[in-house]
Protein: Glycerol-3-phosphate dehydrogenase
Amino acid sequence: MQRKSGMNIGVIGSGSWATAMIKMLSDNQQTKQIYWWVRKEADVEHIRRYKHNPSYLSSVAVDFEDEFVTSDLKQVFAQSNIIVLNTPAAYLKSVLEPLSASDFAGKVIVSAIKGIVPGENMVVGDYLAHVYQVPLEQIVVVGGPCHAEEVSSERLSYLTIASRTSDHAQSVASLLETRYIKTILSSDIIGIEYAAVLKNIFALAGGICHGLGFGDNFQAVLVSNAIREIDYFVEALDPSDRDINHSAYLGDLLVTAYSQFSRNRTFGAMIGKGYSVKSAQVEMNMVAEGYYASACIQSIIAEHQLDMPICQTVYQILYQNGQPMQEIKKLAEKLT
Structure:
């Protein structure tokens, strides 16, 4: 049961990563009140009655009093000082549609979304600043490497907490730290957000190659080229003295490219084995952020005239009816 205090946190979303976030916040020992927005009223009732999410990470116990889990988005915003956005990027616009800039005023907004907003070609921080006038200084970004499934089983994991306001980064980090979660602080909100978007595309590429039968040797070359593409891209958009080998960049790429829990790698493997995009989406019943990110990133690549062979290959396969084996063979000639 949550304890009431002046620190109120609202978590927006009910997928696996949102459920893992609820677990982290609940296991953290700081006094606080957690409000959880869940889209489906049937899921709200299930959580209230049975104390677990019926659809994702159902083994995680969530001992909420009835009034603290709700499908009323405005209520959660009104009662929370800190808002954690944890929906798929593809659904963010529709989820936030009932809100106005006044609902965000004065709040610290935490993006735990590793995706880009379709149709806007913006990472979440930029979208919030543009549409809801949230100052970038009020935004905190949660980076990886961290899979929800390992959080649920309390395996030691690391989160990178980034903000231009060090006090906000420290406050959010202190709320997420548990005996199985360690945090690293950063100020690079733009680089970490874009790296989180790009690594999903590269994990898709790795999955496609796995589905086609390429081995570990090729995958290693693919991933080493991928981290260079990330470095090239973020430097082009936001030059900074960042270390691309930091856990938030290289670490997040590695876990997404190789892990059994990576839905992007799984999605890519299905494409490599001959599934259509639509059939892969139906069978997975989960959002692979890299699919939507591919089209958005391709627009940015074209706008800035960037040369990113892996990203462009994935786009050709997913959106231009490119044949996976042919496109990967052409890519293989460009890798170093």
Residues 1-5 have pLDDT under 50 and may be disordered. The longest strand covers residues 157-163. The chain has two domains: 8-187, 191-332. Residues 191-332 form a domain with the N-(1-d-carboxylethyl)-l-norvaline Dehydrogenase; domain 2 fold (CATH 1.10.1040.10).
